[in-house]
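Exercise 7.
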Amino acid sequence: MRTLNLLASAALIALLPFASSGVAADNDSGGTTNFSMVKEIYDQVRASYVEPVPEKQLIEGAVKGMLTSLDPHSSYMDAKEYKEMMVQTKGEFGGLGMQVTMENGLVKVVSPIDDTPAARAGMKPNDLILAIDDSSVSDMTLSEAVDKLRGVVGTQVKLTVRRKDTDPFQITLTRAEIKVDPVKAQLKGNDIAYLRVTNFSERTDRALEQAFKTIQQQAGGTKLSGVILDLRNNPGGLLDQAVAVANDFLDQGEIVSIKGRQPRDTRRFEAQRNRDMTHGLPMVVLINGGSASASEIVAGALQDNHRAVLLGTRSFGKGSVQTVLQVKESGGAIKLTTALYYTPSGRSIQAKGIEPDVAVEPARIEQLQEVATQHEADLRGALKNTGPVGARPATGAPGAAAKPPAGTSTAPEAAPATSDTANPSANLPPGATPLPRLAASAFDASSFGSDQDYQFVRAIDLLRGVNLFKNMAAQ
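Solution. The predicted structure, written as tokens, is:
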């Protein structure tokens, strides 16, 4: 069985018996000499290192180094790590509840998962974990760091964290059994369906369809007037689930194409006809710097097919596809970047991300600067965008008003800047210990979909405007 992984973090999805057949040969000169060099170094370590080293440790260490030198998302998993990865794709696992990756020797939070210890404690996208229980992560691999973050349910772990424009702080989290509900749904104002998708696990599409049916039942005789699909802080997941979710809002058209070196890694996904469960209701899709991978596939498909207006801030920019290849010899697997994906108009978003149609910064009453989001292009060793870039057609939901000129950003007038010393704990999660001062807070993801969520309120206003225009036109 062979599956594709689109997660922006260190975990995820697929199986293929590992074999050398069908893989293009390396035409670089000196290949034999290079392998001789590896063997020479291996023999020297076995013979001269201060302590005996198990052969398996040396081989796995060499493989890990080879893969991590390629790009931020290729890696080796031993048998234990591979088993844990397979558990995570089912949407149930233990730990703190955040997707993480490795950057410059530190563990970076891609996104906390809703309703988990990490989210409730106030962890944010792009937080850098410096130490776990006072042990520096610079001496750990990502797998070793993840192992230390996990543990027995109910036990505590202390993290030393650095956030943009702040000094480091410490926070203690209590581990819990993580059962991720991939979809949250609410009926807003009696006629707007709010659907928040937090990840793309095996259960996402079924959960989304059921959530929308529940909202329709709650609306009763009231006809729904629009849909808000919230993909903010969604780090991605399974490719087939991204395609299925996009198809839940499309009746026709391309969803995504994937192009790699091997013919088996080149595919195109088309929407199945008459699958739009909303029957063409106006849509707004919310994205931000924590929207990555599978989230970007959905957002790009709806944008390029003129199905929805994208609102928020630029997405993460992970446009690569990882395939998990099982290694029979060790019982582990390698996660290897095998392709890039392209939106229907031919855009590769690798290291670029998706720009919203309507740029809206996260805000409460006054404008709040979003946590300075680092994107795929900022990761060490990230693949460059060398693919064709198609001209994206003008976008917009049916009947939607024209989008603002390029570069237009909508947000309330900014409040006067305040001194860092005015409230030194303003940016700390509850229970965190400052070391010693912090800057102003960014918008809390726990308020997504509430009346305090300015991006959400703007989406509501946009849908109301669309329906007002349609009603006026019909008169």
